[in-house]
Amino acid sequence: MDQWIVDWLSAERLQRYLVAAGHDSERALSLYEWNTRLNASLLHDFAHFEVGVRNLYDRGLLLSLRTGETHWLDPAPHLRLYPVPAQGRDTNLRSRREVEKARSKAGQNRSGRTSHGAVLAELTFGFWALMTAHRLERTVWPHLEQVLPAGTDRARLHESMTALNRTRNRVAHHEPTQPADAQATLRRMRRIAIYLSQDFADHMEETSTVRAILSQRP
To answer: In this predicted structure, what is the pLDDT of residue 99?
Structure first.
């Protein structure tokens, strides 16, 4: 293996591809390039998926509003959804801080106000994945449930979203992606995308290049 490749990728990262390639240096580099294309394709699908999920969840949480309130991200309704416990560990602290961080990053528009849409866009995929956690079963879930298909299992949805979040983080950090994991990711995304609409799920499948890239593995 040429030294410039080792300097570029690091010996540790290269080792995974060398093992997968049977210690064939040329094939190892081809596998790395293939994996880069696969991860880029997965990130394309995650971009579509994340926008759809956050808008679906946003519609659900707007149902939590009381008279005179404008958005669930505003302090009063947000504190109802992510309350501070009377005693014990504050398990909602991380989520409240993430909203404050998103609000700060979103800044203000020309009218001196912070756009709720801009705040939504700054929230991480992990934030949305945690919305189905057991700790929010009594505050957030009753509102999400109203925009999801009847009988949606919260625990199963949370398991899928948690797995997708782990995969997205690995892909975003350019880690190796196994073909079986990529296929499982597509299945999970499609199952949840159908909650928005069949048309959306079909559009994601039609615009995805993941399966085509999987078939081109060196």
So the answer is: 94
Neighbour tally for 52: CB within 10 Å: 20
* pLDDT bracket for residue 111 (50, 70, 90): low
Residues 54 and 120 sit within 8 Å (Cβ to Cβ): yes
Interatomic CA distance for residues 119 and 140, integer angstroms: 18
Helix (H) or strand (E) holding 165: helix 154-172
- CA–CA dist 70, 79 (Å, integer): 14
pLDDT reading at 114 higher than 80: no
pLDDT given at position 112: 61
List the one residue out of 214, 178, 184 whose CA is nearest residue 17: 178
In the numeric block, which tokens belong to residue 70? 């404008």
